[in-house]
TrEMBL record, chain A:
<feature type="transmembrane region" description="Helical">
    <location>
        <begin position="42"/>
        <end position="68"/>
    </location>
</feature>
<keyword id="KW-0472">Membrane</keyword>
<dbReference type="GO" id="GO:0015658">
    <property type="term" value="F:branched-chain amino acid transmembrane transporter activity"/>
</dbReference>
<feature type="transmembrane region" description="Helical">
    <location>
        <begin position="193"/>
        <end position="224"/>
    </location>
</feature>
<feature type="transmembrane region" description="Helical">
    <location>
        <begin position="231"/>
        <end position="256"/>
    </location>
</feature>
<keyword id="KW-1133">Transmembrane helix</keyword>
<dbReference type="InterPro" id="IPR001851">
    <property type="entry name" value="ABC_transp_permease"/>
</dbReference>
<dbReference type="Pfam" id="PF02653">
    <property type="entry name" value="BPD_transp_2"/>
</dbReference>
<feature type="transmembrane region" description="Helical">
    <location>
        <begin position="276"/>
        <end position="299"/>
    </location>
</feature>
<feature type="transmembrane region" description="Helical">
    <location>
        <begin position="153"/>
        <end position="173"/>
    </location>
</feature>
<dbReference type="GO" id="GO:0005886">
    <property type="term" value="C:plasma membrane"/>
</dbReference>
<feature type="transmembrane region" description="Helical">
    <location>
        <begin position="75"/>
        <end position="97"/>
    </location>
</feature>
<keyword id="KW-0812">Transmembrane</keyword>
<keyword id="KW-1003">Cell membrane</keyword>
<protein>
    <submittedName>
        <fullName>Branched-chain amino acid ABC transporter permease</fullName>
    </submittedName>
</protein>
<dbReference type="InterPro" id="IPR043428">
    <property type="entry name" value="LivM-like"/>
</dbReference>
<feature type="transmembrane region" description="Helical">
    <location>
        <begin position="103"/>
        <end position="124"/>
    </location>
</feature>
Length: 307, 462
């Protein structure tokens, strides 16, 4: 039943842009943010809130433009290398950030990401300052595509990746390494006594989550066609945490459900009024008040009652 | 019409979520029904959005996508643009619309950032009724939308896209800028300054810390260095956009004691800076240049002798504007409706809409009175020369605009309770622009003092 529902949802997403071409961009962006929110959700398992994941999102997107400038023009290579770049930044930042817990972890993530933001905005000659840098249309396996064709390829690729990466992350979370995250949350000392190095468990989780955010950033960069420092701003990080919480941190689909919900809500709200922020905000309050487990909680709870 | 339908469908789509609240205790079948309901709603939404309107018949109304800041700090600059658009569209519709078709505008708030702006642009472009986009205010948004305009083939008029990077490749077919750009805008200040104060030795710059501020500093410095190589830049300060406090920067300026202080701060930042700098004597110890000073003339008491301008020719009290009854009427109507006279962002928006209107007229003359397609409209904009409220907007073959530049100094006027611009000069639009395809900064470095000598002098525009 659950697989069926998931398949139906993915199919719906695949069909939607055929009916409404403009939705393709919104959905691509939503999936991209879903990846990043999934990264945040992985760390939330260990009780660690990162208010700085937009840094990896932006790092990957900037990596795409720099790699393209260096002469790499293939979509696949660009994606792989830029995700690696995001993971590398994650490994560096994570190596010292995972020593901290709770509010210190959240604040230090915020601080590091804002340093990154400031660098992007201030290094005018390198990053183009607030005007950012253009992301060129890459080739796909040597094929030179027109922009509309590329955007379709990108959308269906992200959709495919959503399923693939989603299943992989699910397996990771169900592995001993994944379960160790929850154990960190409940009793860290006991874990150490069991001979599991908490530092390594968290660093792996941190790098995985940075890579996920990076994948989202690279896709968003391709979709938008321009990378600006705002990608790394702390409100963007907050947005990712919000998506993760909104969707529900119980499972992998939660992040994507949250991202789709928020993007579609935003799109709907801006068409109605100038005070779209108000509508978005009020809806979020309602969801958080009445659906404490997030939108995904609707499905998960039903699952539990079926047992 | 399609718009209302979309809203209804969106509402329905969202209401199906509400259904889900009740269903969470229900049976799996009910959950499935929710999914199906949502799917149906979403599909209907798509179908409505994708239905094209025949372009060759006169439509019931003409849709315009207007992109500006209507929330956040940048609304200080964006709202005059929106107000002017409201006013001019009402005026156009009162006269029966553009070529008999009433105009209805959809405003898009740029404060949502590039992602939201792109999504909205795509959505509006998907509806064939929306034939033209007037976008945008922020240069980052302009740069992000430009490739999209080419891809979707929607004529896009940059009402405030002043970054010189926008049309630099010369390949644009659908992006137009009936405005000057940062190059003539800031070169004009360098020339005016050297005419008015030929012995200037030291200059300090205080600009907002983003691309517009840095670009302006680069262009203004390059022009000064080219025209008077012994000028020294003694301080370059870039306070954060939206800073409430400029005391540190003002202290630096006070100790550096430069002959000239140049700034392209704007909006609330500019008001704050002026309020804090005036009591500390910056305006008496240095010649201050406020590139966007005209926008605060009616709001803060600027002392006499500050060099200000309008980044173009959009000064509602210029001799040309006063001679044009349309402009006088517009300014009075604006004052009556919004409580103050139109600042230059308002004039820029009004001129952009007049430019769009003229393009329709030209396109319909060309194709024998039929309602033009988007491509025909873009064709009509190419190389056009349009009389605006404050001068002419000429479009070059590379789609870049040639607009005159007005610069002057603040003077007291008996007719108004606020300072106005006097001792004006009006540089011809083409005289301060590099040739199409030329690198702007390379062009600036080739300027010679003789170049400035041939141009009109301060006070020549009366």
């Amino acid at each position: 039943m659950r697989t069926l529902l998931a398949a139906a949802a993915v199919l719906t997403l695949a069909v939607l842009p055929i009916a409404a071409p403009w939705l393709q961009f919104v959905l691509t962006l939503a999936i991209a943010k879903g990846f990043a929110a999934l990264g945040v959700a992985v760390l939330l398992r260990a009780g660690l809130i990162s208010i700085g994941h937009a840094m990896f999102f932006a790092a990957s997107a900037y990596a795409v433009t720099f790699l393209a400038r260096a002469g790499i023009h293939d979509l696949g290579l660009l994606l792989i290398f830029s995700v690696l770049a995001g993971a590398l930044v994650g490994a560096v930042a994570g190596s010292f950030l995972v020593r901290y817990r709770a509010i210190f972890f959240a604040m230090l993530n915020l601080a590091v990401s804002m340093v990154f933001y400031a660098l992007c905005a201030k290094l005018y000659g390198v990053t183009g300052g607030t005007d950012g840098m253009a992301v060129p249309v890459p080739t796909v396996f040597g094929l030179v595509l027109s922009e509309p064709a590329f955007k379709s390829v990108l959308f269906y690729l992200s959709l495919g990746l959503m399923v693939l990466v989603g299943v992989s992350v699910q397996r990771y979370l169900n592995s001993p390494l994944g379960h160790a995250l929850a154990a960190v949350h409940t009793n860290e000392i006991r874990l150490e006594y069991l001979g599991v190095p908490v530092w390594a468990v968290l660093l792996i989780a941190y790098v995985v989550s940075a890579a996920l955010a990076g994948l989202g950033g690279a896709i968003a960069g391709f979709a938008i066609g321009r990378v600006v420092p705002d990608f790394a701003f702390w409100t963007a990080s907050g947005h990712l945490v919000l998506i993760a919480v909104l969707g529900g941190i119980g499972g992998v689909p939660g992040a994507f459900i949250g991202a789709l919900f928020l993007e579609l809500l935003h799109s709907a709200a801006v068409t109605v009024t100038d005070s779209w922020n108000l509508i978005v905000g009020m809806t979020l309050i309602i969801v958080i008040m009445f659906m404490p487990q997030g939108v995904y909680g609707l499905f998960a709870r039903k699952e539990a009652s079926n047992l | 019409m399609a718009f209302k339908d979309i809203s209804i469908v969106v509402a329905r789509y969202l209401s199906s979520l509400e259904l889900a609240f009740r269903l969470d205790r229900g049976t799996p079948q009910a959950n499935l029904r929710w999914a199906v309901d949502g799917l149906a709603g979403a599909l209907a939404l798509g179908v409505v959005a994708a239905t094209p309107v025949a372009a060759q018949e006169k439509p019931g109304s003409l849709g315009l996508g207007l992109f500006t800041f209507t929330s956040g700090p940048a609304a200080a600059y964006g709202m005059p643009g929106k107000n002017a658009a409201d006013l001019i569209i009402d005026e156009i519709n009162a006269k029966g619309g553009i070529e008999g078709v009433p105009v209805s505008a959809t405003y898009v708030d740029e404060a949502q950032g590039a992602q939201g702006v792109i999504a909205e642009y795509r959505r509006l472009a998907g509806d064939a009724k929306n034939q033209v986009m007037v976008a945008a205010l922020s240069s980052a948004n302009c740069l992000a939308l430009a490739p999209l305009a080419e891809q979707l083939e929607v004529p896009t008029v940059g009402w405030n896209c002043d970054t010189h990077q926008l049309l630099i490749d010369g390949k644009s077919k659908y992006v137009f800028r009936p405005n000057g750009n940062t190059v003539p805008e800031f070169v004009a200040y360098a020339i005016y300054l050297l005419d008015r104060k030929p012995d200037v030795k030291t200059v300090a710059i205080i600009n907002p810390d983003y691309a517009f501020g840095h670009d302006a500093a680069k262009i203004f410095t390059a022009a000064l260095k080219a025209l008077k190589p012994d000028v020294e830049i003694v301080a370059e300060l870039y306070p954060k956009l939206g800073s409430p406090n400029y005391q540190t920067e003002i202290s630096r300026l006070a100790t550096a004691r430069p002959d000239v202080v140049f700034s392209n701060l704007w909006g609330a930042d500019l008001e704050n800076f002026v309020r804090q700098a005036a009591p500390r004597g910056i305006f008496t110890s240095s010649q201050v240049i406020l590139a966007l000073g005209e926008t605060v003339l009616q709001r803060v008491p600027l002392p006499d002798g500050v060099i200000v301008g309008v980044l173009g020719d959009g000064w509602w009290m210029s001799p040309d504007a006063k001679a044009n009854p349309e402009t006088v009427k517009f300014a009075e109507a604006y004052k009556a409706r919004f409580g103050e006279y139109p600042v230059f962002p308002a004039i820029k928006m009004a001129n952009a809409l007049i430019y769009v209107k003229a393009a329709y007229k030209a396109a319909m003359q060309k194709n024998g009175g039929k309602w033009p397609t988007r491509a025909e409209l873009a064709d009509a904009m190419k190389g056009s020369k349009v009389a605006t409220l404050t001068g002419t907007a000429q479009t070059r073959p590379d789609n870049d605009g040639l607009v005159d530049q007005i610069v002057g100094v603040t003077v007291k006027a008996s007719a108004q309770p606020f300072p106005v611009i006097g001792d004006m000069v009006r540089y011809k639009g083409d005289s301060l622009m590099p040739q199409a395809g030329q690198d702007p900064l390379a062009w600036i470095s080739t300027l010679k003092p003789e170049f400035a000598r041939r141009l009109p002098k301060p006070g020549s525009y009366k």
